[in-house]
Amino acid sequence: MTHDEKLHYQSLLDILATDSLTPLFQPIISMKDNKIYGYEGLIRGPSDGPLHSPINLFNAAAKYDRLAELDLLCRKVSIQRFGELNLNARLFINTIPEILLQKDYQHGHTLKYIKDSNLDASQVVIELTEQYPIEDYDLMASATKYYQDMGFSIAIDDLGAGYSGLRTWSEIKPDFVKIDRHFLNDIHNDINKQKFVQSIVDIAKGVDCKVIGEGIELRGEYLQANTMNIDYAQGFYFARPNSKPTELLDCSLFSSRKNNFKPKFNIERSDNTAAKLLFYVKPIYTHTKFYDIGERFQSSPELTALPVLNDDATVAGVIWRTEFLTIYASRYGKELNSKKNALSFLDIKALKVDITLSLNKISQHITSQNNLAQHDDFLITSSNRYKGMGKLLHLLKEITEMQITFARHMNPLSNLPGNVPISQRINHSIETQQDIVICYFDLDNFKPYNDTYGFGEGDKVLRKTAKLLTDSADTDIDFVGHVGGDDFIIIFQSSDWQHRCNSTLNNFSALTSEFYSQEHLLNGGISALDRNSEPVFYPLLSISIGALRPHDFGFFRSENDLVSIASNAKSAAKKIPGNSLYQIKPSKQLSNMSA
């Protein structure tokens, strides 16, 4: 056992022996009433010890097999302190599900702590926090039902961040579900997060479960959450955890304000087109007879629509099963229509999409119509020639999976696509041989700025840079991504990309005064010590842009080759003082513009 391990172990033993934990409480707000609904109990270890952080504390308890003891102690001190504060609200206390499943876990203590503190079980909500996968769902459901039968409510914490959140939700049937803070972070600027969260809210409404949005820190996040019928919210925007929590909130927190910045991101991939939805249905023709159409539908119970072609094999429209069989099966339907052909039953306005059209474009087209499609099937064509059919249900499934994937791989700081969607977009450009320009953006002198002003100010610079790049791009055709740290990328299809880059450099120069103190602005930079404790002068922040037009180099076979040359362009740009743009050429001739 190392010295640190001994220190952690002894500190843990002292905590368990002396109950030396401090409970903090953070308000949970009713979005309907704009009032405090409850408080989540949060735990801190001794402030002068190595286990002050709850992460260190629980890691130590898990390592030395004392999780059950620690869990019970956390519950004890939180309930006792909450009773002393005499708060007229509900108390949310955390527990790890695997603790409840241990055979020797002492379930009766919680009820005793509540009675001793003059509380009622109906005031307490037990939050299940998944740190480890649940293996026995039947036993877990039995354990939670035990608490519900005693009057406690159950919540699932951090939905979207655990091992099996949706399954836990369906098996446990909780009273509350808390959406992980990742999905609320900057949600007002991200349509994909909005759709993801809205789907969770809709599911919750259907199963009579209340939704709590965690981690709301910005006004825009609150305003967006408020429009989505989220029941409750929690985060620094309202109040930070405190040993003596607030009981009243500032009314100005709930005033309305619009937020106009809603970035869009082009994240198309070569395989995300109508071709992915294609299934083949043998077509009929406009001259096909009434009885032949009826025979097709009757012999194929799964057939919901028949594609109809003209004699030249172009698409004429669709005949819908329900409408046709209503006529076919009616008392006089056969007699009145027996001599008619497919033209008489044709829907010429049936939805028709080209096989190369992206799933996003199809979705936008459908939702932009005044009347949404009444049928699930649509036609897929190529140059108006029939290729097959697609279903809206399959489209919805694919779009949802794309949105979840996008949210999973999004940079949480900038709200921009991260490395996975960046790689997908570059590979799509290579596969389709698009005429694009790839621009790498790098913030010069960012590390000394971050070291001097702190991570908070550094993060503000990165967020402002992300917005600047998004504003400079045509996000219907251009792609903006965050590689990581202070590196960004734009994949331009805009022909005026050079003008857009120079505008970005000029706009960034105008922002510089917001980032620095007057002293550093007057000096033109920061004086600091390098890793060898030698004094070094770092100029003000600037942006270096390395640009590459793949068509200048012929056909690229791999993303690695393309990225390698683009990185060389960025390196060349960084050698130019101040804001700069450098376009690399096969002849290695300099194509440079400075802002």
TrEMBL record:
SMART domains associated with the record: EAL, GGDEF
Pfam families assigned: EAL (PF00563), GGDEF (PF00990)
> Where do the GGDEF domain residues begin and end?
434-586
Q: Name one GO molecular function term.
A: cyclic-guanylate-specific phosphodiesterase activity
Q: Which superkingdom?
A: Bacteria
Sequence ranges assigned to domain EAL in this UniProt record: 5-255
Q: Which InterPro entries match?
A: Cyclic-di-GMP_PDE-like, EAL_dom, EAL_sf, GGDEF_dom, Nucleotide_cyclase, Rev_trsase/Diguanyl_cyclase
Instruction: Report the protein name in the record.
Output: Cyclic diguanylate phosphodiesterase
Mind giving the lineage of the organism this protein is from?
Bacteria, Pseudomonadati, Pseudomonadota, Gammaproteobacteria, Thiotrichales
